[in-house]
Structure formats: C-alpha cells, structure tokens
Amino acid sequence: MINTPKTILVVGASSGFGKACADLLVRDGHKVYGTSRRAEPAGANMDKFPVMVPMNVQQDDSVASAIEQIIRLSGRIDVVINSAGIGYAGSVEDMSMVEFKDQLETNFFGVVRVTKAVLPHMREQGCGLFINISSIGGFIGLPFQSAYSASKFALEGFTESLRHEVKPFGIKAVLLQPGDFKTGFTNNRLFSKGQTPKSVYYQACTDAIETTIAGEVNGKSPDALAVKVARLIEREQPSVRYTCGPAMQQLAARAKYWMPALLFERLIANEFKK
User: Fold this and answer.
1) At what angle do helices 146-166 and 97-104 cross, to 10 degrees?
2) Predicted pLDDT at 45
3) For the residues of 220-242, what is the DSSP string, one character each?
4) Preceding amide of 50 cis, omega within 30
C-alpha cells in the first residue's frame, strides 16, 4: 500500500528492469512517465500510464526536452529511476575507444544528464529521490566486461557524492545493485568488433560470457527487483545501496570487504573460468 501517489520518471522503460518497474508502479497508483529512444511523442490521451516520452540519454537536448515535457504535463517529478543501460563484452585490448565511450555515454553520462536536468525541479519542490540501477559489476570488476564495470563503478561514486550534495535540499539518492536477472539484457549484449576468433583473448572471453549468460537465463524475473524499488520509494531514510539477486552474489558483495584481496580475486577468476 503506497503512502501518497507520486510522479515517477523511469528512464529506459521499454524493457527489462525499467519496464518491470514502470508496470508495477502504475499498478500501485503512481503517475509514471517512461522514456525510450524509440517512443512516439505523447499523444492526446495523457491519462493512460505509463506515458512514454522519447529520450536519448546520450544527447543533452533530448534529455532536456523530455524533462521539460514531463514537468509541463505533471508539474513535478518526485522519483527518478535511472535504468537505461547497455553492456559491452570483450577484452580491454580488443575493445575500441568508440566502444568504451559508447558504454560510458549511456550508462554513466546518461545518468549525469538526467540528474542535472531534474535537480533544479526537485530543489524547488524541496524533495525528491533518485534510484540509480547499478550492478554486481559496480563493485566487482567482471572479466571481459571492463567497460561495463567501469561505467557502473563510476555510477557508484557519482551517487555517493550526489547524496552528500543534495541532502540539504531534502533530496535522496540510492544505488540498487542487481545480480543476475532474466531480462532482455542477455540478448542485447554488445560484443566488441575486436572479439573475433583471431583474438588471443577469444576463448577466455567466450567462456566468461557464457558463464554470465548461464546465470542470467536462470535468474529471477525483473519483477522481483521492481518490488524492491516500490518498497524503496516508500522509505523515509533509504540507505546508500541495496543488493538484489541470487544469494551467492549478495554474499560476494559482502565478501569483497572482509576477504583478503588476492583470495577474493582468485574466487572471481575461478567463477568465470571453465
């Protein structure tokens, strides 16, 4: 049961975690606006939620336009769920700088753009909540997913800093770290163009990604994470971060901080080695 219906923006609401969150929050009675690069401009029927708004998080003008449209329609934004993301696979040596930049532009700078566009409105309201979807790859460097992990590590530091800056204005920021879930992320994973049989890293990369995929296809439905998000929205004093996923991955998140570093590194290496 929700305390008060809120106006919620779900960035990346066309699939995966974003869609699951948008659908559940609408059922809970919230006014939900979702974004997608391929969304059609909102039509005359603005009472059917979630209302989808076109947004490309890699473009300043697109982000600003989407936020302005939502403010014009609703007058406020109480919660932002940053769930838009992509994932590249490949070795550091094989991956191009274009691919690295594409990864960071979407997963990190996209969040920065949305945050900067929404913050003035939240300050004026005197309240607000950012829920940034990070990953297990945001606290563990995943083999052959260096660009993805880098984007999520950056998001973790950004969100921690943001919390300090916006707390005096009644605004909160939270990290949610999913482990393996069964979403479209698996089929949409991007492989570096350098990841070919000619690469010296080809077999090791293939084995590591197959291990990742096995965990994802056997993972929970994204609906489980959506339930977690719905509960976070109702918390008065949310913590910095929450881990959500298989028990062993949640244990790994804690183990990194109390296990000797080399032992933990060996544990991760063995997990991704066939």
Assistant:
1) 30
2) 46
3) B-THHHHHHHHHHHT-SS--SEE
4) yes
Structure token pair of residue 50: 């979630």
What confidence tens digit (pLDDT) does each residue in 12-49 have? 999 999 999 999 999 999 999 999 988 766 554 455 77
What pLDDT was estimated at residue 259?
Answer: 84
Place of tokens 């009644």: 170
Decide the pairing of beta strands 190-191 and 79-82.
unpaired
Token reading at 74:
């609703």
Residues 6+ apart with CB under 8 A from 89: 144, 145, 148, 189, 190, 191, 192, 195, 205, 209
Beta bridge pairs of residue 33: 9, 51
pLDDT at 40: 65
Residue from 6, 19, 31, 152 carrying the catalytic annotation: 152
Out of 134, 146, 149, 192, pick the active-site residue.
134
For this structure, is 149 an active site residue? no
Domains of the chain, each with CATH number or no CATH: 7-271 (3.40.50.720)
Phi then psi for residue 226, to 5 deg, are: -60, -40
Q: Which pLDDT does position 256 carry in this prediction?
A: 79
Token look-up 């929700």 returns 2
Residues of the chain with pLDDT under 50: 44-45
134 catalytic, yes or no?
yes
